[in-house]
């Protein structure tokens, strides 16, 4: 058995590194960023039999895909589809304001490939801390270990715990909020362009971009908790990217509800602090309404104090003007009071792709 066959057993999930259109009937076409599952190896170790998220099977080239990993050191950051990685950078950036206490960023280590470096400004200079990757966990001091970078940053934001200072403000990478010539806040983008510029296919593409990013978080057991159009960026090439992970935690953790945006948060999260992927799904439904209303504030003409009581009695917003009925049905499915009945992000992506395929054939 070849090294490739041994490393890619049946059931392995992988991420597409490139587009593959296929040249034969038995090939399985896919796009960069798609998640595929290995079904079997073939006689030729350069090819696999795999299936996509909707169950279609076919042959794929082994060198076009990469094993899917969790959000941790060792995972190529480019494999996080449409996530705005504000404080993570892949190149060797600089902190131009070393006098700004607590300014920080995380970059890939140049001296220790596979590890990361935490750069922190402190007392007029920049301190560098190696983030070591051992036994699937991360550590700076080999005393406290974390499951992922998000946990690590959250810990040192609340307590310096041996660092020169606690982490206070992320150094935003070029191309995110700080560089408005390359990225735009989604709400501003929608409001400034409106119906005369953005056609239905653009709105559907933004919806799918966000859904794919959330499907990635769902697959790695993370809950965003603050999903809204204001936390989505749009790049110059019209790709929507989820950003602002200030409230992001593992699905099993709890959260103080005092900081949560009422109009975007699921009723069970506000009432019982029950957060899950399904509470993110509720927020995604609100975000869809924002997209198709071109940036309007949800629950228009309803006082904030009345929103939760009305929602808990079953109230759902009307469809935005011009919203396709199929998309509005998806919104309403996201707003089931019973969280268990709400679809997963995988199901939502499949539903949105079905809507897109239908519209293209009209």
Automatic annotation (TrEMBL):
Keywords: ATP-binding, Kinase, Nucleotide-binding, SH2 domain, SH3 domain, Transferase, Tyrosine-protein kinase. Residues 47-171 form the SH2 domain. SUPFAM superfamilies: Protein kinase-like (PK-like), SH2 domain, SH3-domain. It holds the Pfam family SH2. SMART domains: SH2 (SM00252), SH3 (SM00326), TyrKc (SM00219). It catalyses: L-tyrosyl-[protein] + ATP = O-phospho-L-tyrosyl-[protein] + ADP + H(+). The keyword ATP-binding applies. Residues 77-357 form the Protein kinase domain. Its EC number is 2.7.10.2. GO terms for molecular function: kinase activity. Belongs to the protein kinase superfamily. Tyr protein kinase family. This is Tyrosine-protein kinase. It comes from Echinops telfairi (Lesser hedgehog tenrec).
């Amino acid at each position: 058995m070849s090294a490739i066959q041994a490393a890619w057993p049946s059931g392995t999930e992988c991420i597409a590194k490139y587009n593959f259109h296929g040249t034969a009937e038995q090939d399985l076409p896919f796009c960069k960023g798609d998640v595929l599952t290995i079904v079997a190896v073939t006689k030729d170790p350069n090819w696999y039999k795999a299936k996509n998220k909707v169950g279609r099977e076919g042959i794929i080239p082994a060198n076009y895909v990469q094993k899917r990993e969790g959000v941790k050191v060792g995972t190529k950051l480019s494999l996080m589809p449409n996530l705005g990685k504000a404080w993570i950078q892949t190149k060797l950036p600089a902190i131009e304001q070393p006098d700004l206490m607590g300014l920080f960023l995380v970059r890939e280590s140049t001296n220790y490939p596979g590890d990361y470096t935490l750069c922190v400004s402190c007392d007029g200079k920049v301190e560098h801390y190696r983030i070591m990757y051992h036994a699937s966990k991360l550590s700076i001091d080999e005393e406290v270990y974390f499951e992922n970078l998000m946990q690590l940053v959250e810990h040192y934001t609340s307590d310096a715990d041996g660092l020169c200072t606690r982490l206070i403000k992320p150094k935003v990478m070029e191309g995110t909020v700080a560089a408005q010539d390359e990225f735009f806040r989604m709400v501003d983008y929608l409001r400034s362009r409106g119906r005369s510029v953005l056609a239905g296919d653009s709105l559907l593409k933004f919806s799918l971009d966000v859904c794919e990013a959330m499907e990635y978080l769902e697959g790695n057991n993370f809950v965003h908790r603050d999903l809204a159009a204001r936390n989505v960026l749009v790049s110059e090439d019209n790709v929507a990217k989820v950003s602002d992970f200030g409230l992001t935690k593992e699905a099993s953790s709890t959260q103080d509800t005092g900081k949560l945006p009422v109009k975007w948060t699921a009723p069970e999260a506000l009432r019982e602090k029950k957060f899950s992927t399904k509470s993110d799904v509720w927020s995604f439904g609100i975000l869809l309404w924002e997209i198709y209303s071109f940036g309007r504030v949800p629950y228009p003409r309803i006082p904030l104090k009345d929103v939760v009581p009305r929602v808990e009695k079953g109230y759902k917003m009307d469809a935005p003007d011009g919203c396709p009925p199929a998309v509005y049905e998806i919104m309403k499915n996201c707003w089931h009071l019973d969280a268990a009945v709400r679809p997963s992000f995988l199901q939502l992506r499949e539903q949105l792709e079905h809507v897109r395929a239908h519209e293209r054939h009209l």
